[in-house]
Write a structure and sequence with these properties.
Order of helices and strands: EEEEEEEEEEEE
Radius of gyration: 13 Å
Number of helices: 0
Structural class: mainly beta
CATH class: Mainly Beta
Number of domains: 1
Distance between the termini: 33 Å
CATH topology: Jelly Rolls
CATH architecture: Sandwich
Helix content: under 10%
Strand order of the largest sheet: 2-3-12-6-10
């Protein structure tokens, strides 16, 4: 169980945030949205799932974490590669990989707003 580092590349109209090489039991380092107002985003998750579930989480205090909802109101908790869109005004975002035996999971978020 490790905390995977976050990298980001700020472009003129979006911020691309990535957590690489996540495995079951890992969480991503929190990404601080300190300079953003409400943001819209899309999270894309790729890799070997083998029963793993990757959840996108948000927090306002960096201690208590809750699942981010997609635009249809469902928790973003993927069990296979995919992409989900969301909107948030939370302070921090991070992915969490739980259960199963996933490996080499790559989580990429594109944020606008």
């Amino acid at each position: 169980m490790a905390v995977q580092p976050v990298t980001s590349a700020l472009a003129q109209s979006y911020d691309n945030v990535t957590w690489a090489a996540m495995a079951t039991g890992d969480t991503g380092a929190p990404y601080d949205l300190v300079n953003a107002r409400a943001v819209a985003g899309a999270v894309q998750i790729e890799g070997t799932f083998s029963g793993a579930t990757v959840t996108l989480q948000a927090s306002n205090n960096g201690t208590n974490w809750y699942a981010v909802k997609d635009i249809s109101g469902s928790d973003i908790a993927l069990t296979a590669a995919g992409l989900r869109e969301f909107s948030t005004a939370a302070r921090y975002l991070r992915p969490s990989a739980a259960s199963g035996s996933g490996s080499a999971l790559l989580v990429t978020i594109c944020l606008r707003g």
